[in-house]
Amino acid sequence: MARSIAILYFSGTGNTEALAEDFRNEFRKKKKKTELIRVEDLLSGKAVFRPKDHDLIGIGYPIHALSFPRIFVRFLRDLPRAQDKRTFIFKSPGDPFGNGGSTAYLRKKLNQKGYQVIYETTLVMPANVFFRYPDSMIKQLFLHAQKKIKQAVDEILHNTVRLQKNNLFLDIFTEFFNRGAHLACYLFGKEMRTTKACNLCLVCVKKCPTQNIRLEQKKIKFGRKCTLCVKCFCICPKNAVYYRGMKWAIVKPWYDLARIMKDRQIRPDHLTPRTRGYFRRFYKYLIKNQ
Ligand SMILES: Cc1cc2nc3c(=O)[nH]c(=O)nc-3n(C[C@H](O)[C@H](O)[C@H](O)COP(=O)(O)O)c2cc1C
Whole-structure pTM over 0.90, yes or no? Predict the structure, then answer.
């Protein structure tokens, strides 16, 4: 039985953070001491993580190009070694397609560092790129994720082993696609710009998890360390950050998960047995047991 739990997570726009907080709440209800640690705080030395202080580790991340975000390359490299540490993974894609991609590579890397992945769960959340889902669907997805977290916490504490079934094709495709995306972060991250609406409040500079944004000669400049988490787009109070050549890629207007969850007028009933077309697989994801 786990006594102390550490949940290490990365979240660009708040979805994975909301899930991590939910995991913490559920573990705390079971009287388990649980600590949340942001990956970027770990990398910058702001937070300390000692595997021996915990007997269960959670790792959470948003899906970027079928797998983990670029910042995880450094995270995995710097993660302190552990010994047979029980670990669970939760990932938050914006679409149930492909189960969020293979976790074979991540599991292998964690295993090499002494983290034994015993449980995985995919928690579909609103997409922060391409499509702005309706508020009622956003609420429905998050409520469903909360239900799954409750079940996951029960199962993890009862030592249930639940691992995603990967296959060779998915493993190879995911790794190929994801590495391409990491290269794209390097190449295209620099292509962010700010419009005239920018008032140099520097929120983006302060909050960028990879310290990729700086003020230079009274202008906001973007570097090559971008992890494409799109936090700068969503936190800009003036909505002034955009991606050169791909303005359409980021969802607008931005959704406020906390507001949507609080608003009683928003009913979580967008996906129904009658849902067809693009969103049909979202409904199928809702009715699947796991
Ligand atoms: C660069 C980038 C790539 C993404 N790739 C995928 C993907 O391959 N599959 C998917 O389902 N969602 C993808 N998404 C959507 C996010 O995974 C999803 O919205 C997630 O819940 C965001 O979590 P966060 O708010 O914690 O950052 C991508 C988002 C970004 C910014």
Answer: yes
